[in-house]
Design a protein that fits this description.
The complex is a heterodimer of chains A (about 120) and B (about 110). Chain A has about 120 residues and is mainly beta. Chain A has a single domain, classed as Immunoglobulins (Immunoglobulin-like, Sandwich). In chain A, about 0% of the residues lie in helices and about 50% in strands. Chain B has one domain: Immunoglobulin-like (Sandwich), CATH 2.60.40.10. In chain B, strands 2, 4, 5, 6, 9, 10 and 11 form a 7-stranded mixed beta sheet that branches. Chain B has a 4-stranded antiparallel beta sheet with strand order 1-3-8-7, with no helix packed on it. Classes of the chains: A mainly beta (about 120), B mainly beta (about 110). At the A-B interface, β11 of A face β4, β5 and β9 of B.
């Protein structure tokens, strides 16, 4: 079964600075998706960024970018020019892209335990 | 409005009572999911459904029952609530191969 690990329970960053959140995962599949979700105090789950494993180019969404290292099974999120509104829980998630479940893979999202990001003014 | 909704948003119940959490989506998405969120555990999958009348267990299914007679609805029932089921519950839906959307969550307290 796939697992997702976020080794940093909490992180903090100064406003306007850059912060990187770590995520590693374990899978035997070659085709999959990786996601970062943001959960502010409102509890709403917001998709921040998505990466397809077959794409070598790292995904970018405005101030958010990822460093996807497929061989190392690493998927970190970089937030540039941090803003107070970036304060939230951030979850890394994995989903198989295979149409046929492979070694327990499926179309379910598997989440890490989250990293709480604090942005200091 | 189109989207995914959950009801109730807050619920307090007692140990041993049956509780049903409702989830409704207006997109006709094939897949629907129920997660629970607890401190230190992230989101854990309880049950999911690939289509109407097709459901399967997730990571933590014990004590829960689901049904999906209609594509748009995916209720989650706690047959005999326990204190360990105090949690925030999220419903989600997505089309096959598409982006997943989450409901606003239901905070359930079991006394």
């Amino acid at each position: 079964a796939q697992t997702v690990t976020q080794s940093q329970p909490e992180m903090s960053v100064q406003e306007a600075e850059t912060v990187t959140l770590s995520c590693t995962y374990d899978t035997s599949e070659s085709d999959y998706y990786l996601f970062w979700y943001k959960q502010p105090p409102s509890r709403q789950m917001i998709l921040v960024i998505r990466q397809e494993a077959y794409k070598q180019q790292n995904a970018t969404e405005n101030r958010f970018s990822v460093n996807f290292q497929k061989a190392a099974k690493s998927f970190s999120l970089k937030i540039s020019d941090s803003q107070l509104g970036d304060a939230a829980m951030y979850f890394c998630a994995y989903r198989s892209a295979s149409a046929i479940p492979l070694q327990g893979g499926s179309e379910k999202l598997v989440f890490g335990k989250g990293t709480k990001l604090t942005v200091n003014p | 409005d189109a989207g995914i909704t959950q009801s109730p948003r807050y619920k307090i119940t007692e140990t041993g009572r049956q509780v049903t959490l409702m989830c409704h989506q207006t997109w006709s998405h094939s897949y629907m999911f129920w997660y629970r969120q607890d401190l230190g555990h992230g989101l854990r999958l309880i049950y999911y459904s690939a289509a109407a009348d097709i459901t399967d267990k997730g990571e933590v299914p014990d004590g829960y029952v689901v049904s999906r007679s209609k594509t748009e609805n995916f209720p989650l029932t706690l047959e005999s609530a326990t204190r360990s089921q105090t949690s925030v519950y999220f419903c989600a839906s997505r089309p096959r191969g598409g982006r997943q959307f989450f409901g606003p969550g239901t905070r359930l307290t079991v006394l």
